[in-house]
Amino acid sequence: DAKVLEKLQIACRQIEPFTVRLDRLGTFGGAKRGVLWMYPTSFRGEVSQNNDAKEPLIHLQACLQDEFPYCDTQQKVSGTFNPHITLSHFVNLDEAFEAQSKIEIWWDTSIEFLVDEVYLLCRKGDGGQFERLLTLGLGSESQLRVHNPPLPFDFM
């Protein structure tokens, strides 16, 4: 739908490309579920040490939320968007803590990469592979590419 594409471009044009650094692990859950995750710190220039709206990734989500206010799944539980990359699920939080402790013994590096585009993904069924429907560039000169048929990710 042309209106949806326009709204996606409006949001993505407000955010210039930025860097993401992966270097912090965390956990959440309880007695019946545990999750080990990594926090994607996002920045341009100097790194912000706190999780606030100054981070470009959080700002991007806010711009998308402004254009699509009914897409609020990420905020229903805690009331805020908490960017994270799920690494693994565990039977309980204690097992997630244990995995975090073991990884932190040998993980002493960070991974950084430039984010200059985002994808709109689709998946057929719960077990299907995610594919790219759209590629949206970031920044005032952003371009939109529609993939028909959707593009799979290489090596997945």
UniProtKB/TrEMBL annotation:
SUPFAM superfamilies: LigT-like. This is 2'-5' RNA ligase family protein. It comes from Amphora coffeiformis.
